[in-house]
Amino acid sequence: MNSYDLNDAGPDGPSLDDLAEIEREMPLIDAEVLLLDAQITILCAEPAPSDLDWQRVRRARRQVMREARALLAVRATSGRGIRVA
Questions:
Q1: 64 lies in a domain?
Q2: Looking at the domain assignment, is residue 50 inside a domain?
Q3: Domain that includes residue 19, residue range
């Protein structure tokens, strides 16, 4: 039987800290996916985007901004600041 300890993750996989950071960023990632989906709907709308389509984009943008602010606030209180990959 192959035993795998997450604490021993090698260079081929994310560390526990990386996984924790991804988990913290998931609400922002989800919001960005919803925004992308709304933007794709606008681009593919036939014959033209409806008012509801545009409202969906605006709502998704606001959600992305809320989640980004929340993530920055968490990072500011933890003293980590902004990490650029």
A1: yes
A2: yes
A3: 13-78
The sign of the torsion formed by the CA atoms of 48, 51, 53, 57 equals positive
Q: Which amino acid is at 11?
A: P
- CA 24/CA 72 separation, integer angstroms: 11
Residue 6 lies in a domain: no
Which DSSP string corresponds to 28-75? HHHHHHHHHHHHHHHHH-SSS--HHHHHHHHHHHHHHHHHHHHHHHHH
- Please list, in sequence order, all residues whose beta carbon lies within 8 angstroms of the beta carbon of residue 38, skipping any fewer than 6 positions away: 53, 56, 57, 59, 60
- Domain count along the chain: 1
**Per-residue pLDDT in tens (0 to 9) along the chain, 85 residues:** 444 455 555 677 889 999 999 999 999 999 999 999 999 999 999 999 999 999 999 999 999 999 999 999 998 998 766 555 5
In a domain, 27, yes or no: yes
